[in-house]
Each structure stands twice: as structure tokens, then as C-alpha cells.
């Protein structure tokens, strides 16, 4: 079983964004993973006094992002593994979530501005455009999810001391 | 044409990072890889634009009419935090997998001074609603552009044979200064 993890299962790793996750629970045939912190926030010298703690620590945010995965490799609680997501999926996801609502909101706002020329009407139109954009995001996300592109793939067990590259 | 000039000015000539020196934490911290820079740039673009829209309304319908200008900074910070939390909640609700992929960037934006800086600049500029929104969008596109450019340079720097004393952040800072110098080439194109 271990071999299944140590071999990347014919996955083309050069196009994957890798991250390290820790197994926090095992349920039947699946495991729950929590990604390890990969950004610089929280690891700097002033992290203890950082203002971002007021809205939730990085650790608690990571806990919110726990995700399931099939346990084909006999993983146990506490193990660290390297998971990967296709790089183009990450870009597609960013565009779907953040850019699509903005584009629709701007189209609505510019149309309203050119027709009515009123700030208030433009504002309401842009707000409506944002809501419409989020509906589009919901549809787009369903489409991406249907292809399985957003599901992280298990690449290998992390070696002791292996971390995300931050230098 | 007015909006195009405004956008070019905000994105390139008065770039948030390299000309106004805002958002430097994320500029150095999240640009180790292109994919993280793209994620952070897109999240920032959305949050800066939405915050600017709300802040414009708050300024024109609340702070200015009632003479509460001295509360501007505090109010804007509150609006930014609320809009980031709202965005996070919406993304989490409409697509949990997308939230798992992208949600990590959102809390970092709340304390990103570029967001507050852009909101304060558009009040200073006394722009219309659509003008201020275009300004915010262009500023954040400029921010994202520089983040991705710098991430690309840093990915190449990892492979470069850098003298030991300059390895890591020092060569990063030198590269950032050269990037800022190159952006000075846009000076003189500004309409504002």
C-alpha cells in the first residue's frame, strides 16, 4: 500500500501545485487532511502581535479548510503527505471566483452609467451585477468540480522535515 | 477615454506597490511562487474593488454629509474587514472546494495596507462612483501584475548562482528595486 503513495501514480508533477497536509482523521475509506501553512503570514517575527489574529488565526483558518481524500494508501492520523492540484485549475478557480463577478458587475455599472448617468443607479446596478456574478461563479464552480479538477491528488508521503518552498 | 487614462495611470504610472509602496508585506511574502501570486492577486483585485465601492458610498452618504471625516480611517478598516469576511463566507457557501483552494489568501488581505491605501486615495481624488471603481480596479490589476512579475523573477532567481551573502531576501530586494526603476519608465504618462 505504501508504494502506491511513494510512486506518484503517473501524475505529471511538473504541472501541479504541491502542498503539504497533515492527516487529522480517518473515517472508513477516507481521510481528512488539513493543509500546513504555506504562506509567510504567521511565521514572521511579529506574528504574535499581528493584527490579523483579531479575525482568526492562520491555524484556525487552516482548520476550516480541512478536506477529505480517499485513503488508498493506509494513511494514519498525524502523517504528513504531499498533495497536488493542477496549476491551471488554480488559475481557473481564481478567475471563476474573483474575476467573473467583477466583470459582470463592471458591465452592469458601465451600462447603467452610460444610460442614466447617476451614481446611485450605477451603484445599485453594480451590486446587482455582483450578485449575478456570484451566481455565475456557482455554476462555473460546479462545472470545474464535475471534471474533478479541484480535487487534490495524493502524490507521496512527506519526508521528515520536508516543507513547502518559501525561500 | 477618461477612464482608460485613469486606469493606465493607476495600474502602471502610480503603481500601488512600486510607486506608492503599499502592500509590501504580501509583495515580499507571497511571491515565492507564481501560483500563489496569481491567487493573492485575484483575491486582492476583488476585495480592493468591492471595498472601494462600499467605501465610496459610506464616504458620500454618511461621513461627508454628517461631518464625520475624522472617522474615515476607522470606518474604512471596518468596511474592508467586513467585505473580506463577506467574500470569504460567499465563496465558502457557493463552492467549498474553491474555498479550500483559495480561501487562505482572504485573511491576509484584511491587513493589507494596499486595500486601505486605495480607498483613501479615491476619497482624496474626489472621483465619481464609476471613476473610483475604475481607479480601484486598475490599481489592483497593477498590484496583481507586479506580484506575478516579481514571482516569476523570484522563481528564476532560485535557479541562479547568487553569491552567498546575497542569497534569499537580499537579492529579492535588489530585484524589487530594479523592477521599481523599470516602472519609472512610465512616468509622464499620467493623466492624474
What does this structure look like?
The complex is a heterodimer of chains A (167) and B (192). Helices cover 42% and strands 20% of the residues of chain A. With 167 residues, chain A is α+β, with helices and mostly antiparallel strands. A 5-stranded antiparallel β-sheet of chain A has the order 3-2-1-4-5. In chain A, strand 1 (16-27) and strand 2 form a beta hairpin. Chain A is elongated. Chain A starts with a helix and ends in a 10-residue tail after the last strand. The model of chain A is unreliable at 1-14 and 49-56 (pLDDT under 50). Chain B has a domain at 2-20 and 41-147. Chain B contains 9 helices and no strands. Chain B has helices at residues 2-13, 24-29, 34-63, 72-94, 96-102, 105-110, 113-124, 129-159, 169-183. In chain B, helix 1 (2-13) runs parallel beside helix 8, helix 4 (72-94) crosses helix 7 (113-124) and helix 8 crosses helix 9. The longest helix of chain B has 31 residues, at 129-159. Chain B is globular and about 60 Å long. The chains are: A alpha+beta (167), B mainly alpha (192). At the A-B interface, helix 2, helix 3 and helix 4 of A face helix 3, helix 4, helix 5, helix 6 and helix 8 of B.
Tags for this model:
heterodimer, A: 167 residues, alpha+beta, 5-stranded antiparallel sheet, 5 strands, 42% helix, elongated, disordered N terminus, B: 192 residues, mainly alpha, 74% helix, 0% strand, globular
Give me the secondary-structure topology:
The complex is a heterodimer of chains A (167) and B (192).
Chain A: H1 2-6, E1 16-27, E2 30-35, H2 58-64, E3 67-70, E4 80-86, H3 87-116, H4 119-146, E5 153-157
Antiparallel strand pairs in A: 1-2, 1-4, 2-3, 4-5
Helix pairs in contact in A: 3-4
Chain B: H1 2-13, H2 24-29, H3 34-63, H4 72-94, H5 96-102, H6 105-110, H7 113-124, H8 129-159, H9 169-183
Amino acid at each position: 500500500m505504501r508504494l502506491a503513495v511513494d510512486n506518484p501514480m503517473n501524475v505529471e508533477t511538473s504541472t501541479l501545485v504541491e502542498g503539504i497536509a497533515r492527516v487529522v482523521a480517518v473515517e472508513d475509506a477516507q481521510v481528512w487532511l488539513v493543509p500546513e501553512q504555506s504562506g509567510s503570514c504567521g511565521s514572521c517575527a511579529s506574528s504574535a502581535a499581528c493584527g490579523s489574529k483579531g479575525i482568526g488565526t492562520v491555524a484556525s483558518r487552516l482548520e476550516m479548510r480541512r478536506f477529505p481524500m480517499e485513503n488508498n494508501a493506509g494513511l494514519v492520523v498525524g502523517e504528513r503527505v504531499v498533495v497536488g492540484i493542477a496549476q491551471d485549475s488554480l488559475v481557473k478557480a481564481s478567475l471563476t471566483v474573483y474575476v467573473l463577478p467583477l466583470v459582470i458587475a463592471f458591465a452592469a455599472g458601465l451600462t447603467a452609467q452610460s444610460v442614466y448617468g447617476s451614481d446611485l443607479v450605477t451603484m445599485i446596478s453594480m451590486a446587482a451585477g455582483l450578485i449575478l456574478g456570484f451566481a455565475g461563479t456557482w455554476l462555473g464552480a460546479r462545472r470545474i468540480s464535475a471534471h474533478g479538477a479541484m480535487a487534490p491528488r495524493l502524490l507521496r508521503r512527506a519526508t521528515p522535515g520536508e516543507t513547502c518552498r518559501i525561500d | 477615454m477618461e477612464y482608460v487614462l485613469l486606469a493606465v495611470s493607476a495600474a502602471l504610472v502610480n503603481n500601488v506597490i512600486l510607486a506608492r509602496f503599499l502592500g509590501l508585506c504580501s509583495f515580499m511574502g507571497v511571491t515565492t511562487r507564481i501560483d500563489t501570486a496569481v491567487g493573492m492577486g485575484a483575491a486582492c483585485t476583488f476585495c480592493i474593488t468591492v471595498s472601494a465601492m462600499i467605501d465610496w458610498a459610506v464616504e458620500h452618504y454618511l461621513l461627508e454629509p454628517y461631518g464625520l471625516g475624522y472617522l474615515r480611517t476607522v470606518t474604512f478598516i471596518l468596511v474592508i474587514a467586513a467585505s473580506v469576511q463577506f467574500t470569504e463566507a460567499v465563496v465558502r457557501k457557493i463552492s467549498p472546494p474553491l474555498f479550500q483552494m483559495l480561501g487562505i489568501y482572504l485573511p491576509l488581505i484584511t491587513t493589507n495596507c494596499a486595500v486601505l491605501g486605495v480607498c483613501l486615495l479615491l476619497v482624496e481624488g474626489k472621483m465619481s462612483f464609476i471613476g473610483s471603481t475604475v481607479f480601484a480596479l486598475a490599481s489592483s490589476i497593477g498590484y496583481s501584475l507586479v506580484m506575478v512579475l516579481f514571482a516569476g523573477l523570484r522563481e528564476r532567481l532560485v535557479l541562479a548562482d547568487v553569491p552567498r551573502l546575497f542569497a534569499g531576501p537580499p537579492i529579492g530586494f535588489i530585484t524589487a528595486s530594479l523592477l521599481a526603476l523599470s516602472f519609472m519608465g512610465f512616468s509622464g504618462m499620467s493623466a492624474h
